[in-house]
User: Fold this.
Amino acid sequence: MSEIVAGKRQMRMKTAQADKAALDRGTVVRGCAVGAARGERMQAMRSALPALPLLVFLSCFLVLPLIFIFHTAISDREIADNLPETVAALQDWNGDGTPPPEVYAIFLGEIGKANERATLRQLGRRMGYQLDRGMNLIQKTGGVARSRAATDAAAARTALTDIDPAYAAPGIWTIVKQHGSPYSTFYLGWAAGFQTKLDKDGRPSMETGYDFRLFYLRTILISLAVTALTLVVGYPLAYVIATSRGWVGGLMLFCILLPFWTSLLVRTMSWIVVLQTNGVLNGVLTGIGAVTEPVTWLYTRTATILVMFQIQLPFTVLPMLGVMRAIPPSHVRAARSLGAGPIRAHFNVYFPQAVPGIAAGGLLTFVLCLGFYLTPALVGGASDQMISYFIARFTNEELNWGLASALSTLLVVGAGVCALPFARLISRHSSERK
Amino acid sequence: MMTMRYRGRACLSLMFAMMLGAGAPALAAELKVVSWGGALQEAQAKVFFDGFSKETGTKVTQDSWSGELAKLRAMVDSGNVVWDVVDMDPQTAAAACEQGLLERIGDDAAFKNAGLVDGALTDCAVGTSTYATILAFQKDAFPTAPASVVDIFDTKAFPGKRAFRKSPVDTLEIALLADGVAPGEIYKTLETQEGIDRAFKKLDTIKADIVWWEAGAQPSQLLKSGEVKMAVAWNGRIADANAKENADLGIAWKNQIRGFDMWVIPVGTKNAALAKDFVSYTIKPEVNAELSKFIAYGPTVEAASALVDKALLDSLPSAPSNSDGALAQDGGFWGANGDALNARFASWVAQ
Assistant:
């Protein structure tokens, strides 16, 4: 009897154990599912870990500088920092005629303080960007404010209008009133080609400034021309290299890569030797009798496009080559076997598969061309200078960082907008390949 | 035991090295002088820098620039001034002075009593040599040689490409001279909007044929390589190219534009006293006259004119045979209007 009880107890224990085991297994399975999802995420994060240095690098050297440049492009602090009380006093002025005399007294006082703080020069420069002879005006006023502390409003008004009649006109007061905030779109508007300079009466100035729209257009046209040229010449070149079996392909690839290994400056200077009036090209042309007088090649648009084409050719050919090498030759053979002629087979079968490579190469070249500075500066004429020349000029020579940043911002945004559809095309291709 | 001996020796040599190190800075003071590079700077190095070094034991280091005032502005604004003495033309010096970038050395008794010629001492600058902007040309390029600087505007008699400095200074004056304005009226005309427009309209007539240069050594290079047939250039550089490189270039002196090379001392430099000593050294009559031996520039000290070699006198800007229709640069005008005209000129060139 006890054996039966013992046996039943054993069976109950076994069942309980079996139930428990089943319960545990279920938990394990469920736990596995949850754990598996977590494990996948951990796996994904761990596999992205090698990209962490790249992300840090990009954020330090790409994102942060871009943020700094954009911030500089919209910063406009000089008037807000030096003339805050004048700005406040001008808020009640309606913009017609001249402001009330108290404003003059406040203004004179703040100019004196700016002079002591040694920030008058920056204020003068900023005024000069927007007002005819604005810098001279502020410099002169600073000189007087130093030696004279005008007490009452009428005396201040007389003192200022004696320095320059511009103070009796609305121009300068309109400018001060409108730029009381440390941020403004002044530099962005200037970079986009909007008339920003005023004469002393507040009307648009007669002075013709830089025509930035023309420079942007010129930059885009030159970049398009160079891109088209590299594509037209580079496509057959890449095709030959990709499909050749002997030493021809290797040799051509070497010839394309060799200039890559010399400095950009050396390449451009050697073109000067070739293209100058008594240079190699003119020597050959006059020698074979094609021309009687040496042709002017240097310092022209032709020279700029030619040299940029030679420099950019590897950048176009190499991405195309990468994509073309992955196209199976059997596809074209199949098309031929189905009855297509060689040209039709190429354009219907080979070319569509090569399009992402063409887009990649063309995009790379176009965006690089937008930023070209050295080559047009050395072999181009004065009217061939691209937008980077002006960004460099405003950064180094005129020290107008607001305008340089605004020009850069517009360039980056424009390049991004152009690049977006092509980038999508290329990424679609690479994801299809996976 | 051996370690202790080594330690003792090590201590001794360490103390010795520290004493040497502490003593070293007191030996040589250093002065950084910035000039325009090329033949001018080589001549100044031989006469001024080496001479000053020998006399005072100061180490003179050199740098060069092409008149980019913004670089100096950036230095002074950031408080990190590394240039002690800079060679500037009068207009840049006037502009920089007005903007508070330079020490006001014009009131120093040492310079006031040095016997400088008229115009060589301004508020912030001391003149060290006189140069002229002239017309240089290839001698065999034309049947009749150009006689005056304004001939650069004559495309009928002198066809082909010509070179100008990429700056409104001297360029606008030459344009107005070519348009018929008398030398005495040039700056009065340039003060008015119509005068400026007139100069740019005159320049528009030859704009397509202009090649622009920025460094002083470029005009002789462009002429030698045949890139241009005539060029507006600084006389000393052309004379140097003729003497050292057999360039065989002609010079048209009529309507030359005379200027000064002036020393300035940026505000905030740590060696201001030493810099003033250097400037005083260069305006000693015998030193000032010495420069003409190495480059065709004239002295700025009255007493030095008598000390210049008679043979060299004819090649100097001040020679009577070269001074027909000469115009002296007005530093004050450019100081006041330089910024605006520079901007207008740069945008005109780029279109």
